[in-house]
Predict the structure.
Amino acid sequence: MSPNMYNVPRVMLIEKSSLSMRQLSQLITELLDCELSAYDNARDALISISQKPPDLIVTEWDLPDLRGDELIQALRSHRDLKAIPIIICTSNPREEIRRRAGELSVTDLLPKPVNRILLQERLNALLNRSGNPIREEPETKTFNDFRSQIQDIRTLAPLPTSVKNILEITNDPSSSARNLAEVVKVDQSLTSKILQIVNSAYYGFYREIGNIDHAVVILGFNEITNITLAACIIQTYRNGHGEYFDRERFWVHTLGAAYIARSLKPYIPELISKDAFVIGLLHDLGKVVLDQHYKEIFHRVLKAAHEQNRPLHEVSRELLGIDHAEIGGLVADSWNLPIPLVNAIRHHHNPDLANRQDYGIHLAHLANYFAHRQHIGASGNPVPDAPHPETLKVFGFDAKDLDSVWNSLNINSQALSKILL
């Protein structure tokens, strides 16, 4: 029996990227009881539309066979199809696209990645007027202020100058350890934090390292670069203590994930060690940004997750319409970090949406799992993810062999747990 006999709307999604298609499909079906069809090109979609017109079309602007305006023109020229509402999603909402979309009476133009809250509002406005069922997010009215504020997250959390300087040095082939040391030495608190990590039990040097120059000689340029980047981030979001979120233990968790990710890197030759470390270090960036700028709201979400004994990201999506992973992705994107890193941050709880080649997503997911499993620090999440089967396939692991995998990494979890002490 057709779902539409129960007044369920038909939604068509046209998206050239398989990853983006899976993400949007999941998001739409979470927000809306609907009959969803998806196509990766405009021509097949047009054939389907002519046979069975949908109630709404959500499409990317740049399709492999037609531009968005060509697709819309084809629909607008047909008497029976011209009234179908169309939402355009694009990662590049340049002025030319906005102007053309306005000329063609496009219903809405949303930037990618699509914000859950904005999409729900559009779906409600377009389809709820006809009585079609829309799933409401529980208790979202409690957080109305957050809905408007979250749009400013890019300006509230700019790229720290110290981090920018370090990234510029590490990405410049002509830079040397001396350049890095010169930048670090002007900031005594940063120097102190770097030496604290270097002299921790994790590295286990028999004699204390007293200055950055010595540290570079002993550990090498790449290792000091990783430690410096970690110290810069930690210094930017200084320690704070809450009932459910202790930043010092949080940073131990993220450092743990960084070292674990780097140790897992040999299983994914396509990644380089530096990138693996940064993926682990920044995977939970959204949590500390929330704690820094929306402490009260974040505390309420944490409290609900702990009281309900449920994953933090699931509770956050119910209450806020967004979670720390997506927020971290927004911030990383605003910092102009590489797209694979942005995706690793944004989707480390959703490896089922990733392709096998989205190595950073799978790496962040598994490193996060091992950091929780070994009780290295604390992330604030009362119910950590189990390793996803797709991620295990990418690494070539079997769930029953994870003890052996961990032992093969040769990581001293007890020493790592004390890295900031």
